[in-house]
From TrEMBL, chains A, B, C:
Dirigent proteins impart stereoselectivity on the phenoxy radical-coupling reaction, yielding optically active lignans from two molecules of coniferyl alcohol in the biosynthesis of lignans, flavonolignans, and alkaloids and thus plays a central role in plant secondary metabolism. GO terms for biological process: phenylpropanoid biosynthetic process. InterPro entries: Allene_oxi_cyc_Dirigent, Dirigent. Its main location: secreted. Residues 1-26 form the signal peptide. The keyword Secreted applies. Homodimer. It holds the Pfam family Dirigent. GO terms for cellular component: apoplast. It is found in: Secreted, Extracellular space, Apoplast. This is Dirigent protein. It comes from Triticum aestivum (Wheat). Keywords: Apoplast, Secreted, Signal. Belongs to the plant dirigent protein family.
Length: 199, 199, 199
């Protein structure tokens, strides 16, 4: 078995044990757990586009809207505050490249969830959402949560579960702010790495 | 070991390694990981009843209430909107059959958490909650999260953790809208399948 | 291998398989899964301090603020209600002892996330947050969620993921209300136990 691990660089934990159990109609996927942080069992680079409703004239394009107001804890410290307590619900577009989809082109996924700002002294957020895939490539979801430590160039969210093609997945999404336009648009680059997969 | 797996259809990953470690007072549970999506280590069918506060006359029965209002992103598109941004906190009853408990009968569990609507174009939600068990059968919690893609007949939430009798559990809850009554009641059928258990 | 398990009391699932795979620059951590609920692969006792904004004069010290109001479901039952539906965003201090940090002393971690009250009949809450470590001892995050069943002396939250030094961690945080001061301060003792680690 050491030879197998050395050649694959991924340890097929139960593969040998599971051989021959699956019938013709059964789901034949088997669990794979990465042997090291350097070796995810799956990797995808994705871009999340957050177009925030400005309250005036972008309802057609906006995919996110605040549902609570910043609290006084925020506004009492900075002239415009740090949005402490503002919670934003989103159904954002997710793409494989940096550009938004043109015309009828389908996005790679949607990101459905929310974030909120949670720091008095600077911009800092917390996210939880599902990546919802419904394309030729993938059907299923990945569920994420974690601190978006905006003072850091990159920050890691936990991928805590998955469904469909991502059945029972776990991993890490390393995010980076890739572009911003004023208050009402940001794009995150997400390096999505799974360390537990069923393949 | 291939013979063992073939007869149990569940792979006891660490059972052989863990034999003899637990003393008389120790917790003797051992970890079980399913070998295939077809073979959960535990299955339960449960019904979640959401009785939404109507703001008028159902405080005695209601178990859920909106804590934010739908945003303009919702109301600008449909005559009555799609509730985009409305977040509902709940402490819902969970039962083994479809009926609500009668009299003093205890529910199978409570579901404590929240959901919110997150789509401009149609009804679509996102859930996170704990199933809280405090019955003769079970004591402990299961923690869930994921997209409730209401356009799909069934949709999968991730079970990302558990406590007590469900210590360190992971799995999938497949939900289906089983009944609705106007805006203020729905019942979800939840096929709850665990693929990582301690038994 | 039975001898190994018996001596370590922790099962090194993939250690033997992974030997020799990591180069000089590679991340050499390997996955460890506990063999029993009695034997976490890591343990930490931490204290979470929640200083709630009182809306008047504690903006300098407050680390948490309500962003939604309790609903009528709460106030209709008790004279002062059970805060049903009140959601609080926090960036709380986390310490190793019970005392708040003095002067420039850094906390052990921050806890960033939110809780809300979800019961009509009594005080009961639901939490999700990240423990954010940025100290000499640790850099990284742990992500938690679960029901805070306030009628119970201790209650268990799920640790569903981790990053950095806590890469891919899972576990349980057993919390206990350690102190309260009126409505605007509480301290939780958190016994944080990991059962899945990379070491």
């Amino acid at each position: 078995m050491q030879g197998l691990a050395a050649s694959c660089k991924i340890v097929l934990v139960m593969f040998l044990l599971g051989l021959g159990l699956a019938g013709a109609t059964a789901d034949s996927r088997r669990r794979v757990v990465s042997s090291s942080p350097d070796e995810p069992c799956k990797k995808m680079t994705l871009y999340l586009h957050d177009i925030l409703y400005n309250g005036v004239n972008n309802t057609a394009n906006a995919t996110a809207a605040p549902v609570t107001k910043p609290t006084d804890l925020s506004t009492s410290h900075w002239s415009n505050g740090t949005f402490f307590g503002m919670l934003v619900v989103f159904d954002d577009l997710v793409t494989e490249g940096t550009a938004l989809p043109v015309g009828d082109k389908e996005p790679a996924a949607r990101a459905q969830g929310f974030y909120f700002y949670d720091k008095k002294e600077s911009y800092n957020a917390w996210f939880t959402f599902s990546l919802v895939f419904d394309s030729k490539a993938y059907k299923g979801t990945l569920n994420l949560m974690g601190a978006d430590l905006m003072d850091d160039e990159t920050r890691d969210l936990s991928i805590v579960g998955g469904t469909g093609d991502f059945f029972m997945a776990r991993g890490i999404a390393t995010i980076r702010t890739d572009a911003t336009e004023g208050y009402f648009y940001f794009r995150l680059k997400m390096d999505t790495k799974l360390y537990e997969c069923y393949v």
